[in-house]
Write a structure and sequence with these properties.
Blueprint (H helix, E strand, L loop, with lengths): L3 H13 L2 H34 L4 E5 L2 E5 L2 H5 L13 H9 L11 H36 L2 H20 L3 H29 L3 H32 L4 H20 L15 H5 L2 H32 L3 H6 L2 H13 L3 H5 L1 H18 L10 H29 L4 H30 L1 H15 L12 H4 L5 H10 L12
Antiparallel strand pairs: 1-2
InterPro entries: MFS, MFS_dom, MFS_trans_sf, MFS_Vesicular_Transporter
Membrane topology: Multi-pass membrane protein
Protein name: Solute carrier family 18 member A1 isoform X1
Length: 494
């Protein structure tokens, strides 16, 4: 028993430390992000099935035409006679073994071109709903703490996942995507605020957020290839049912580590939104977040459709195309989490945005899936450098220039992110249809390269005692009213 005592004490100390909270936040971000990315590569194929594949269609190849009754006939010819015995044996082998042969391609190119807009709107619905609910969640966490809203977000994410699994129409897909946006609002804002509060030291906070963002990276890394492979080889519902099981595990972890049934108002008064939104340093950071996520939001629906149009790629390749990007993103998040503080977070952010812009300019040069590897990896490196420093930078800005209440600043960060993801898919599809994929990527790359030098302003931002104006009487009164009663102040993580 004496030998077990130090071990038990160590386990107790570790469990009572901040590590379990970091684990919970990482799992929360992983579930949210894998659900977010899983739908992007399969959405074009799914809508092709729902909207174009109904009725009697034909699939053309170099040998003629096959009778096709639905989408499954186009991507999976198992409904035909046994391929070893049936009359279509040679043609089936030709299709499956030569997915890049432009003679064996998708019927309905005009439909695929029109689908840019519909896929973009489907992907953008999440961001629009998340945009509307972020300010509400930012106010809510000040009143009741971070734990309860995060658990409520888990419940909504489970509902959204099950809706995706059993949706059989475009309208139901939109409803599921909307619920996902609401769940993300109740997930990301409390998760980031929890980390900023639990890790007050700036260096530790950067490392913790880098580790937690690894959950984002793994989710983003696994989502597209996992979703597209499961969709083609197992079935439409299978990836979403797996994610629903992961979400239930996430809920169990929250119940064990956090206190979702206890309301714990924050002791630090919040800074009004209008004060934060008029801070030039926060504005520069938020606009940069918006532009970067606008770029990725445009690429999500347009690259799979570009592959379907010009490369005749089967569904599993639509997700694999994003694998180099996500892998590079994951490596950069872990590699630069601690190093970014030493070289300067502003420099990491600026280099990341420039790398993103250059890589986007190179995307139209790809003629097959292998040509996408290098530019997609460059996009991942740019995002990794950018995001490993931006979220700690946001917390640092409110620490030195305002009050250390992180609900509002991460609501603003998430709003900027959502504006990018809302405008990207919704506008990107329409712009790609109007001017073409190549010109869209050129414009996008130039925007990133032109904006990147503005992050020099974040090199050494002054504190509030140096340049911040004195609050008006009305603003001072609003801050005083936002303070919770002293008798009710309790921090669930201390």
């Amino acid at each position: 028993m004496a030998r077990c005592s130090p071990c038990c004490q160590w386990l107790k100390k570790t469990w009572e430390s901040r590590a379990p909270i970091l684990l919970v936040v990482a799992v929360v971000m992983f579930v949210d992000c894998i659900l977010f990315t899983i739908i992007a590569p399969i959405a074009p194929a799914l809508l092709y099935h729902i909207e174009y594949g109904r009725g009697n269609r034909t699939f053309k190849n170099s040998s003629g035409q096959y009778p096709v009754s639905n989408y499954d006939s186009i991507f999976n010819l198992s409904h035909l006679e046994d391929s070893r015995k049936g009359p279509y044996h040679d043609q089936i082998i030709n299709i499956t073994e030569s997915p890049g042969d432009k003679k064996n391609c998708y019927e309905g190119k005009d439909f695929l071109n029109e689908e840019n807009v519909r896929v973009g709107l489907l992907l953008a619905i999440k961001a629009f709903l998340q945009l509307l609910f972020n300010p509400i969640v930012g106010k809510l966490v000040t009143r009741i703490g971070y734990d309860a809203p995060m658990f409520f977000g888990f419940v909504i994410v489970v509902v959204s996942t099950l809706l995706f699994a059993f949706a059989n129409s475009y309208a139901l897909l939109c409803v599921a995507r909307g619920f996902q946006g609401i769940g993300s609002s109740f997930t990301m804002v409390p998760a980031l605020g929890t980390l900023a509060q639990v890790f007050p030291d700036d260096v530790e906070r950067g490392k913790a957020m880098g580790l937690a963002m690894s959950g984002v990276a793994i989710g983003v890394l696994a989502g597209p290839p996992f979703g597209s492979a499961m969709y083609e080889f197992v079935g439409k519902s299978s990836p979403f049912l797996v994610i629903a099981a992961l979400a239930l595990l996430d809920g169990a972890l929250q119940c064990c580590v956090l206190k979702p049934t206890k309301f714990s108002p924050l002791s630090v008064p919040e800074t009004p939104y209008r004060v934060l939104l008029t801070d030039p340093y926060i504005v520069v950071a938020a606009v940069g977040l918006c532009i970067c996520n606008f770029s990725f939001g445009i690429m999500e629906p347009t690259i799979p459709i570009r592959m379907m149009e010009t490369m005749c790629s089967p569904p599993y390749q639509l997700g694999l195309a994003f694998l180099p990007c996500m892998l590079a993103y994951f490596i950069c998040l872990n590699l630069f989490a601690g190093f970014a503080h030493k070289i300067g977070r502003w420099l990491c952010i600026m280099i990341g945005m420039m790398a993103l812009g250059i890589s986007v300019l190179c995307l139209p040069l790809a003629r097959n899936i292998f040509g996408l590897i290098a530019p997609q990896a460059g996009v991942g490196i740019g995002f990794g450098l950018f995001e490993t420093s931006m979220f700690p930078m946001m917390a640092h800005l409110v620490d030195i220039r305002h009050t250390s209440n992180y609900g509002a600043i991460y609501a603003i960060s998430d709003i900027a992110l959502c504006i990018g993801y809302a405008l990207g898919p919704s506008c990107g599809g329409a712009i790609a249809k109007a001017i073409g994929f190549t010109w869209l990527m050129v414009i996008l790359g130039i925007i990133n390269l032109v904006y990147a030098p503005l992050f020099i302003l974040l090199r050494n931002p002054p504190g509030k005692e140096e340049t911040m104006p004195v609050l008006s009487q009305e603003e001072t009164q609003e801050q005083e009213e936002s303070k919770p009663l002293p008798t009710k102040v309790a921090d669930s993580h201390e």
